[in-house]
């Protein structure tokens, strides 16, 4: 029972982490398979017609299609990696200062920060202070 649960959890984690890589790689394999089959069909057709004038160009077109598919695959992953880096830098709303003891926070984060009021208080009280009725 637990073995199946851990397998499913492992597969889920892998899928969430590498979903785009897995899907794009499968699409690349399907693309290469289709190009190969289309080229084989064309060669079969030209052989049946006994007209071999376009076979050289078909090989050039096949290898250009392969190069285009693989190039698009690598370009997609290069731009996807760049987008992840830019998104992660945009998500951090804190500015890094030269003094490690001082951290500047953006004004936008103060408006959306539910704890800003608590940080502005001069003294903080615990639950025990509330129960005892101390001010």
Automatic annotation (TrEMBL):
Superkingdom of this protein's organism: Bacteria
Keyword Transmembrane helix: yes
Keyword flag Membrane: yes
Keywords: Membrane, Transmembrane, Transmembrane helix
Basic residues bias: start-end ranges: 82-96
Annotated segments matching region Disordered: 81-112
Protein name: Uncharacterized protein
């Amino acid at each position: 029972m637990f073995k199946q649960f851990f397998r499913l959890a492992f597969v889920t984690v892998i899928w969430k982490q590498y979903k785009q890589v897995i899907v794009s790689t499968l699409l690349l394999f399907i693309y290469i398979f289709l190009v190969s089959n289309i080229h084989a069909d064309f060669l079969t057709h030209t052989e049946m017609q006994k007209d071999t004038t376009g076979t050289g160009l078909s090989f050039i077109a096949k290898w250009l299609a392969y190069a285009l598919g693989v190039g698009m695959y690598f370009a997609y992953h290069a731009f996807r990696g760049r987008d992840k880096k830019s998104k992660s830098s945009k998500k951090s709303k804190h500015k890094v200062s030269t003094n490690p003891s001082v951290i500047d926070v953006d004004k936008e984060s103060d408006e959306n920060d539910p704890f800003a009021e608590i940080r502005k208080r001069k003294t903080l009280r615990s639950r025990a202070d509330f129960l005892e009725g101390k001010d």
